[in-house]
Structures are given as C-alpha cells and as structure tokens.
C-alpha cells in the first residue's frame, strides 16, 4: 500500500511538473527583459511584427527601451502608448519575427487554478514560478491615483524585475500581466479580458485610450429567481451611488437600480459596463435596461469623456 501511495504521489508531481515545464517552455521565447535607462522590467510579445505588452509603471516616462530575449537577441523598441489608469503599456520593437504569446481570458479563471508566472528580470536569465489563483476581483490602486478592478491575486512568487511579465494558465495562455508584489506570497496581475483587450487595441492604433465617464458606482448582484428565469441571466449590476450632475444622473439612474443590459447585451458584472467605455463609444448614446422596484425600465445613457 505504501509503495502504491508513493507511486501515486510521484505521478501527481510529474503531472504538475509537466504542466509547468510545458507552459514555461512555450512562453520563454515570448518574454523580454526591458531596460529603460532608469529601470527595468519584463514585457510579453503579443504579435510577431514587434508589439509587446508590459506595465505602464515599467516604462514610466521613457519613450524608448531596449528589449532582450533569452536567445540573446536584442531590439530597440519605442513606447507606442501607455495607460497609467490600467497600468498597461504597448511597445513596438524594430523586429518582424518575434514569437507571440497566446492571450487567454481571465474571465475563465477559477480560484485555486494553477498559474505560471514568467518574467525576464536580467535579460538572459528568465524567471519561472508557479502557484495558484488565490483570489479574483481584487482592486489595485495605480500610481495615477486610479484603481484597476478585477485584478488577479496569486501566490506564485513574483521576482524583482518581473513586472510586466506573463501570468499564464496551464496551457500557456497569458491571462494577466504581472504588476505588483503586495507581500510575501501575494502577487497581483492586471487581467487579460475584454476591457484590457480594448485598451491594448487603442494603445496600439492611436497611442492613447479614450475613456467614458458615467458617474456611478456599483457591483454585481444576483437576480431574484423570477427575474433570472425571465431574463436568462443570473446577475446584474446594482447601482450603489450616482454622482450629481454626471451622465448617470442625467440618464435618470438611481441608487438600488439594477442594470441588466446595455444595448441589448446582458450586464452581469462591472466589467460588462467598463468594456463599453473605451474608444468610439464615448459620447454615443447607450440603451440601458434596468430593474427598479421590481419593474423593468429603459433609459438612455451618454458617456462623457474622462479627462485624465
């Protein structure tokens, strides 16, 4: 019996090791060491023609950085755009044959899931650590004085210089960009989701992010069973606060309203709203469906541009 238990433990360890080794081998060629002249960090290749994703605080005010990879190659890169509000930045390297990482979806993560953190703090000595998703939905204050929502918390050790590196699932899909070490065994990563994809697209195409401002605070709340069956969704976003004179106030939204759809698309969490507040949707009317005192109401909400 003892030998059978030992063999089972060995097989489990081998399976764990195979996942970590496989993910790291796929990601290592895609993670760069970034040197800004005043500091350093890591970056993740997101397209073969030279685009990399990193943390905004890694590049700071630099306009050009040097990117080096584990195979010894080095490239000059310019900062295509940085967004301190999300702590994300996009670089473009003078290269056309980089190995891009596959981007995943942090919305599919579960607490307890295995994740692998890959950074390149010293240029030719990549750092790989593994752990689990400790928590989801954390908030991270940025150096710009704003808060990044839905941050991933992990116990995978994040080494100095690994900020801007990859946090990946067991299939080597990048689900977050590592951004901070908040304590022993407590690392944080900005999630890769619909909102951050829109931010990356805006930084890549125009170098800046236009953001909408609604003037409300809220959070996800389960729907009553009858409404859940009627609408075919389990949750909505409850309005907790409405700023006087804001677009939300002008639209007629009130505290305790439960937003369930915008432009016909279901709204179950705050991120479903945030992803509509980037780019061309700013200044355009949004059709809002909400529940107020058990009744369905329709409102028109026009996001104002957020002045940063």
Features:
308 residues, six-stranded antiparallel β-barrel, Pdz3 Domain, alpha+beta, Thrombin, subunit H, single chain, 6 helices, globular
How far the N terminus sits from the C terminus, by CA atoms, comes to 65 Å
Just give the CATH class of the largest domain: Mainly Beta
List unreliable stretches of 5+ residues.
none
Shape: globular
Q: What is the N-to-C order of secondary-structure elements (H for helix, E for strand)?
A: HEEEHEEEEEEEEEEHEEHEHEEHEEE
Radius of gyration: 21 Å
Mean pLDDT: 88
Structural class: alpha+beta
What count of structural domains?
2
What order do the strands of the largest sheet run in, or round the barrel if closed?
Answer: 1-2-3-6-5-4
Question: Which percent bin holds the helix content?
Answer: 10-25%
CATH architecture of the largest domain: Beta Barrel
Enter the CATH topology name of the largest domain: Thrombin, subunit H
Overall number of strands:
21
Largest sheet: 6 strands, antiparallel, barrel
How would you describe the overall organization of this protein?
With 308 residues, this protein is of the alpha+beta class. The chain folds into two domains: 1-206, Thrombin, subunit H (Beta Barrel), CATH 2.40.10.120; 212-305, Pdz3 Domain (Roll), CATH 2.30.42. 19% of the residues lie in helices and 41% in strands. The protein has helices at residues 2-27, 56-59, 194-206, 225-231, 247-251, 270-274; strands spanning 31-35, 40-45, 51-54, 64-68, 74-83, 88-93, 102-103, 114-119, 127-141, 147-154, 166-168, 173-183, 186-191, 212-213, 216-222, 235-242, 258-262, 265-266, 286-292, 295-301, 304-305. It has a six-stranded antiparallel β-barrel with strand order 1-2-3-6-5-4. A six-stranded antiparallel beta barrel has the order 8-9-10-13-12-11. Strands 15, 16, 17, 18, 19 and 20 form a six-stranded antiparallel β-sheet that branches. A hairpin with a 4-residue loop joins strand 11 and strand 12 (173-183). 41% of the residues are buried.
